[in-house]
Amino acid sequence: MVTSNVSATPPLPSSRTSKSPARHLIWIIPVGCVGITAAILLFIGAIFIFVFSLIKDSPVYEGALDRAAEHPDVIEMTGDPLEPGWFVSGNIAVNNQTGNADLSIPVSGPDGSGQLQVEATKSGGEWQYDSLNFFDESGGPPIDLLHER
């Protein structure tokens, strides 16, 4: 007679193959926080890019840069070509055919840099500059870009 020592009960699962939900919960909070923080930062960044592009596409911004790039005193201080900086501060408010703008535009050229200070009003659909000054980085007197020297 032949007897077999084979057991009829299956082996117990090892702890490595266990699918414990608690083991995965440890990662949910840090990964969730990083994901939410990244989404918030991307949203804020998109808002900044949108607002800056609206300002930079405005006629008052482009007109101020054109005047500065053509003014002989600004060219003498900064060199040619004059390039606008990225971070424009101020605001533009438009309501139908009226509005106002108050901007500070960083500009630079090969020989120096400074700020354009712009104040303008819009009436009847046309922008009129109230003041347009260039302030050199050295702190000298402002250059009035609305009047010839």
Molecular structure report:
With 149 residues, this protein is of the alpha+beta class. The protein has two domains: 28-57; 59-144. Helix content is 37%, strand content 30%. It has three helices and six strands, in the order H-H-H-E-E-E-E-E-E. The longest helix has 36 residues, at 21-56. It is elongated, with a radius of gyration of 32 Å.
| Count of strand segments | 6
Average of per-residue pLDDT values: 82
What global shape is seen? elongated
Biggest sheet overview: 6 strands, antiparallel
Number of separate structural domains? 2
Helical element count? 3
Order of helices and strands: HHHEEEEEE
Strand residues, percent: 25-35%
Helix content: 25-40%
- Radius of gyration using CA atoms only: 32 Å
| Structural class by helix and strand composition | alpha+beta
Topology:
Elements: H1 21-56, H2 59-70, H3 72-78, E1 83-84, E2 89-95, E3 98-108, E4 113-123, E5 126-136, E6 143-144
Antiparallel strand pairs: 1-3, 2-3, 3-4, 4-5, 5-6
Considering the chains and any ligands shown, give keywords for the structure.
single chain; 149 residues; alpha+beta; six-stranded antiparallel sheet; 3 helices; 6 strands; 37% helix; 30% strand
